[in-house]
């Protein structure tokens, strides 16, 4: 079946995976753990989606079962990892907006990083464990999409898998609102803290706020919509873990003709895949052109510029012999300003005395003699001769 998204989607996915990871080094140096987690998870998600879109463009063949095992687990983890990273960002922004002192100790920074890791990496790991309980069979393969996890739709699946993206999004929204309120109430102390912070500027603060808000507006409605779709679908009774995992090695393969015939499936696939790529590009738009980014780009390009100049040195201009022109014009060499020589003739003892000066020394000499000076000079010379 013709895929209208190919090759645009895989190309944009791979570009997004590369772009979103570019600002990682300087955010890592600034201890921005929530931002680093957002970059890492988004890059992994875009890379995974791009590879799947290329390999399974027009087929549902199980080319790489091990890859599909990994890929389907990445999709499960990312479904909560990106909202959890946004929660880390909003939580840190709230801490900054309500901070009492402008200085932060190294121990406090380390503690904040550990909390962010527990949220941004611990929650996705727990989600993978919970997912395995309701994972009815190994995975599915959808034409034009690739590998995808399968959740056995039982009442147990709702608290274990379905609700967590929505819960995390709502917690992030609460932190976002409290951050804005705290900023409005304590604007003076907030400005004092930012002026004393070397790793956070007011521009970066509001870019982080805009990023977290944009992610919140994208993922939370999708999580709510997906939850409502699963609630309206057929819900199987939960019997046991063994019953859920009966025939676990099965792999269901879905041609595009079949899954696109279900409008709800098409909406979910398109929204979740494209919004992941959108998150990558919007992050690079916020942080890829900032002042610190341009400084780091220049620093990274400096060795290559030096290497280029060493391999292709600039050739010096070849020197030509002096070329004289009559009437006092003399061209010293190529690439220099011509020097003009003027001759001043003064009558002394009925003889002509010649004086030469160049215009390159004009700044060091007094103005040329006037006619009145020449007459006085001639009279004084005659008087001295008479004496």
Descriptive overview:
Belongs to the G-protein coupled receptor 4 family. One of its GO terms (molecular function) is mating-type alpha-factor pheromone receptor activity. With 387 residues, this protein is an alpha+beta fold. The chain folds into two domains: 300 residues, Rhopdopsin 7-helix transmembrane proteins (Up-down Bundle); 46 residues, no CATH class. 63% of the residues lie in helices and 9% in strands. The chain has 14 helices and seven strands. The strands form two sheets. It has a four-stranded antiparallel beta sheet with strand order 4-5-6-7. A hairpin with a 3-residue loop joins strand 4 and strand 5. Helix 3 runs parallel beside helix 5, helix 4 packs parallel to helix 7 and helix 9 runs antiparallel to helix 12. It is globular. The protein starts with 7 loop residues before the first helix and ends with a helix. The C terminus is likely disordered.
């Amino acid at each position: 079946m013709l895929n209208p998204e190919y090759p645009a989607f895989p190309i944009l996915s791979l570009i997004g995976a590369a772009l979103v990871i570019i600002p990682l080094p300087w955010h890592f140096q600034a201890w921005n753990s929530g931002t680093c987690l957002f970059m890492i998870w988004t890059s992994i998600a875009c890379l995974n989606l791009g590879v799947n879109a290329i390999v399974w463009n027009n087929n549902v063949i199980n080319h790489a079962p091990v890859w599909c095992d990994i890929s389907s687990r990445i999709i499960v983890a990312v479904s909560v990892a990106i909202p959890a990273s946004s929660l880390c960002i909003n939580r840190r922004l709230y801490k900054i907006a309500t901070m009492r002192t402008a200085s932060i100790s190294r121990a406090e920074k380390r503690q904040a990083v550990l909390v962010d890791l527990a949220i941004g990496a611990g929650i996705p790991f727990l989600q993978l464990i919970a997912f395995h309980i309701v994972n009815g069979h190994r995975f599915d393969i959808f034409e034009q999409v690739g590998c995808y996890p399968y959740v056995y739709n039982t009442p147990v699946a709702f608290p274990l898998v379905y609700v967590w993206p929505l819960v995390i999004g709502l917690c992030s929204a609460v932190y976002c609102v409290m951050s804005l309120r705290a900023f409005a109430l304590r604007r003076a102390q907030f400005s004092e803290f930012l002026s004393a912070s070397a790793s956070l500027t007011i521009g970066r603060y509001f870019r982080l706020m805009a990023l977290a808000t944009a992610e919140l507006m994208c993922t939370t409605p999708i999580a709510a919509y997906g939850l409502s779709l699963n609630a309206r679908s057929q819900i199987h009774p939960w019997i046991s873990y063994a019953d859920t995992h009966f025939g676990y090695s099965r792999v269901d393969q879905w041609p595009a003709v079949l899954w696109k015939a279900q409008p709800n499936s098409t909406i979910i696939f398109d929204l979740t895949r494209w919004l992941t790529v959108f998150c990558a590009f919007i992050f690079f738009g916020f942080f890829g052109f900032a002042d610190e980014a341009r400084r780091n780009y220049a620093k990274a390009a400096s060795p290559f510029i030096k290497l280029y100049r060493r391999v292709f040195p600039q050739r010096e201009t070849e020197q030509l012999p002096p070329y004289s022109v009559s009437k006092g014009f003399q061209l010293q060499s190529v690439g220099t300003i011509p020097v003009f020589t003027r001759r001043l003739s003064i009558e002394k003892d009925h003889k002509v005395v010649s004086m030469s000066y160049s215009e390159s020394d004009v700044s060091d000499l007094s103005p040329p003699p006037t006619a009145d000076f020449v007459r006085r000079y001639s009279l004084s010379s005659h008087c001295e001769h008479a004496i």
